[in-house]
Amino acid sequence: MEKYKDRICTFNDDIQGTGAVSLAAVLACAKASKVPLKDHRIVIFGAGTAGIGIAEQIRDAIVRDGVKEEESYDHFWCIDKTGLLTDDSPDIQPFQKPYARRSDEVKDYARNGPKHSIDLLEVVKQAKPTILIGTSTVGGAFTEEIVKEMASHVERPAILPMSNPTPLSEAKPQDLIEWTEGRALVTTGSPFAPVEYGGVTYEIGQANNALVFPGLGLGTIVSKSTPHDRQYVCCEC
User: Fold this and answer.
1) Are 173 and 185 in contact (CB under 8 A)?
2) Of 41, 48, 160, 188, which has the most beta carbons under 10 Å away?
3) Residue 107, Cβ neighbours under 10 Å: how many?
4) Which residues span the domain enclosing 106?
5) E strands present in the chain
């Protein structure tokens, strides 16, 4: 993308398509929770290209919501296989660096993860996120303890286990609804059946990038679009 984005119309579905559908889900969660996007705290579990692609889309929207660009990164805590990304993380990639937290900022975080890293549970305890997004392909990573910890600080926790196929989803909607006593706003990357809880039927929205690229590709061809790095943001509408 960096090589060709200014030369030809190019689209990366894993980065941009996933980011677009995730932003749509996040905007819906912000509306349902009645909390403006600029006031949300976002943890992304799985800070690879898909996870950072999601962060980029959401961050752009936060800036459009009135937050200064240099401050917009402060809304994110991104976690990869080495734990929470910090400015002294080993092997941190260039595309991850803008989202790394300052090491002095997290010096009091417990380091209970592998190789003395800061794990997801500790980040949830410290950051008190309002939105939790999973792109890790680690099935069941959003445990009952993690979800209940998040829900103890947030009235309507938005939880998006985006990994697919289904066995790789970070959590099952049934569990998320039950663990939060029906308060969670749930969107998944894989298809799930509706959940019955407390006499209420919860329809589980699927934010799959397959919902984006056919229309975007056709629209690009029909409109004879010129290269534009942010053209896919239209999907947030």
Assistant:
1) no
2) 160
3) 8
4) 13-236
5) 42-45, 76-80, 83-84, 131-134, 158-161, 185-188, 195-197, 200-202, 205-206
User: What digits encode the pLDDT tens for the residues 185-195?
Assistant: 999 999 999 99
Q: Which residue has the tokens 């805590």?
A: 77
pTM of the predicted protein model: 0.90
Q: Quick check: is 91 in a domain?
A: yes
Q: Measured at the alpha carbon of residue 18, what is the angle toward residues 14 and 22, in degrees to the nearest 5?
A: 160
Q: Report the mean per-residue pLDDT for the chain.
A: 90
Judge contact between 50 and 15, C-beta under 8 A. yes
Q: Does residue 203 belong to any structural domain of this protein?
A: yes
Distance separating alpha carbons of residues 76 and 225, to the nearest angstrom = 32
67 found inside a domain: yes
- Beta-strand pair 195-197/200-202: antiparallel
Q: Is 208 labeled as ligand-binding?
A: yes
Tell me which amino acid residue 209 is. Answer: N
**Structure-block tokens of residue 33:** 């929770």
